[in-house]
Structures are given as C-alpha cells and as structure tokens.
C-alpha cells in the first residue's frame, strides 16, 4: 500500500494547481481547496515518510467535491469549474489512498 500511495503522491505533485477562478462565485471553493490541498498533501507525505501525523477525520475534501459537483455552483466559468473538479478528483484519490494506508497500518497494530 505504501508504494501505491507514494506513486500517487508523486503523480499528484506533478499536477498544476488550478489558477484562481475569474468568477467570484468560486472564490470560497478555491480558498477551501488551497487549505485542504496543503493539509492532505502533508498527511500523505507524513504517511510515506513514516512520521506520526495528527490526522483529523473531520476535515473533508469530499464535501468540497460535493459542492463542486452540485447545482449550488452557479458559475458561468465552465473552464475553472472543470479544472477545479479535475484537481479535486485527484486530491480525493490521494486522500482515499492515505485513508487506506492508515487503516491498513492500524489493523496490523491491533
């Protein structure tokens, strides 16, 4: 699992972070993504490095993904929405693999 997480982490690190959207309706989503991106990348990096990390399950990228995929995003900036959705999808996959890594690790300890 660690090798799979590490591979995804490297691939994710190669992605270009989306540019700020032109549409003000997307500002909150973009700001939240900035915070969550650093948070989850740090958690994944800590897992790969074997370092202890305070992993807050209450912090959720999946709610951001839901927001982007819902009809609540009423923006005409379709290009920005597409780029944000694509980036968030990749971040969600990194989070999923990190969760699996920690679950696997804790089940071995139990």
Order of helices and strands: HHHH
What are the low-pLDDT stretches, counting only 5+ consecutive residues below 50? none
Biggest sheet descriptor:
none
- Number of DSSP E strands: 0
Mean pLDDT: 84
Shape: elongated
- Give the end-to-end Cα distance, rounded to a whole number of Å: 18 Å
The total count of helices amounts to 4
**Helical proportion, percent range:** 55-70%
Would you mind describing this structure in some detail?
The chain is mostly helical. It has one domain (2-109). It is built from 4 helices and no strands. The chain has helices at residues 2-13, 27-49, 61-69, 78-109. α1 (2-13) packs antiparallel against α4 (78-109) and α3 runs antiparallel to α4. The longest helix has 32 residues, at 78-109.
Summarize the structure.
The protein has 110 residues and is an all-alpha fold.
Keywords:
mainly alpha, 4 helices, 0% strand
Summarize the SSE layout with pairings:
Elements: H1 2-13, H2 27-49, H3 61-69, H4 78-109
Helix pairs in contact: 1-2, 1-4, 2-3, 2-4, 3-4
């Amino acid at each position: 699992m660690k090798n799979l997480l590490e591979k995804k982490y490297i691939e994710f690190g190669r992605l270009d972070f989306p540019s700020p959207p032109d549409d003000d309706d997307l500002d909150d989503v973009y700001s939240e993504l900035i915070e969550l991106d650093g948070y989850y990348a740090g958690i994944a990096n800590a897992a790969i490095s074997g370092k202890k990390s305070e992993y807050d399950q209450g912090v959720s990228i999946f709610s951001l993904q839901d927001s982007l995929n819902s009809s609540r995003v009423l923006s005409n900036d379709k290009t920005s929405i597409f780029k944000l959705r694509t980036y968030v999808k990749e971040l969600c996959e990194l989070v999923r693999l990190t969760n699996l890594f920690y679950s696997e690790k804790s089940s071995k300890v139990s």
